[in-house]
């Protein structure tokens, strides 16, 4: 697919919104947002963007205005792309259209949440959009039964995207090169990655380096099918490690690609960032 052929536009009419809701249901099943709620949102300050290929809807991004601690921002609640067109840049196009909308309407900040074990959203958030995260939300939505979320607590990273602020300096590559792994990872006999098999991580440990790396699995959904207990093990270990590092004033600023089995979060001291 040629991205040049993809058109991003606002979705406004009930007919267009019904098509978004249909795609939403294809992706998330029973967790899909009803059409009437989407319509009410876009008629009252929300934004619904559609990605169209030759006139056919293949992706969408839904957000609304948020307010917290005296700051107005856009909250990007949901982004979805038809399975055939995933990992081809459609999500990034939608986010950049969202960025332009934010600029035109005076927003400096866009926020969203995503599963910290989902590599696709991690790459989009930190590698392509230069977002940052230093808040961990444990079981954020409660139990979810859709295909993406069923079987694990709905933990989320809270992401901040300051659309016109450079939060990291030119030393990012140096941080990535000098960072050491917080805990090790290895492979099971079934060819799946396992984190901290020997229990190296200590919750009361004081971290002193400028930057650290934390492995995340490359294919969470595959792991959930082949080894649900291992996927659960990753959930609880990553939860413990990230909440500990966030409490000690670290932030995720990048994804460092590694091998077929894992990627790494790059965590840097917040005092070194322009946040």
What does this structure look like?
- The chain has 275 residues and is of the alpha+beta class.
- It folds into 2 domains: 3-162, Aminopeptidase (3-Layer(aba) Sandwich); 172-272, no CATH class.
- It has 7 helices and 13 strands.
- It has helices spanning 14-28, 35-42, 90-104, 119-128, 172-178, 220-226, 228-247, and strands spanning 6-10, 47-53, 56-68, 71-81, 109-114, 132-137, 156-162, 180-181, 185-187, 193-195, 211-217, 250-257, 262-269.
- It has a 7-stranded mixed beta sheet with strand order 1-2-3-4-5-7-6, with helices on both faces. A 4-stranded mixed beta sheet has the order 8-11-13-12, sandwiched between helices. A two-stranded antiparallel sheet has the order 9-10.
- Helix 1 packs across helix 2 and helix 6 (220-226) crosses helix 7.
- It starts with 5 loop residues before the first strand and ends in a 6-residue tail after the last strand.
- Residues 7-166 form the N-acetyltransferase domain.
């Amino acid at each position: 697919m040629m991205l040049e052929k993809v058109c991003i536009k606002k979705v406004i009419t009930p007919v267009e919104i019904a098509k978004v809701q249909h795609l939403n249901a294809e992706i998330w099943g029973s967790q899909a947002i009803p059409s009437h709620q989407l319509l009410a949102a876009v008629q009252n300050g929300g934004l619904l963007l559609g990605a169209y290929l030759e006139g056919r809807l293949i992706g969408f991004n839904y957000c609304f205005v948020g307010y917290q601690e005296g700051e107005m921002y856009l909250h990007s609640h949901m982004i979805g792309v038809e399975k055939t067109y995933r990992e081809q840049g459609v999500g990034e196009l939608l986010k950049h259209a969202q960025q332009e909308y934010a600029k035109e309407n005076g927003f400096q900040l866009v926020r969203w949440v995503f599963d910290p074990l989902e590599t696709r959203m991690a790459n989009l958030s930190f590698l392509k959009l230069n977002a940052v995260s230093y808040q961990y939300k444990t079981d954020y939505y409660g139990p979810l039964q859709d295909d993406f979320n069923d079987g694990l607590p709905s933990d989320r990273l809270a992401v901040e995207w300051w659309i016109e602020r450079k939060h990291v300096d030119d030393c990012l590559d140096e941080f990535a090169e000098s960072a050491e792994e917080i805990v090790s990872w290895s492979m099971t006999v079934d060819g799946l990655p396992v984190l901290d098999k020997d229990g190296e991580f200590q919750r009361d440990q004081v971290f002193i380096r400028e930057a650290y790396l934390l492995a995340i699995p490359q294919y969470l959904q595959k792991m959930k099918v082949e080894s649900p207990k291992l996927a659960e093990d990753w959930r609880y270990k990553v939860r413990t490690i990230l909440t500990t590092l966030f409490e000690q004033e670290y932030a995720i600023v990048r994804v460092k690609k590694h091998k077929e089995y894992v990627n790494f979060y790059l965590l840097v001291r917040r005092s070194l960032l322009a946040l």
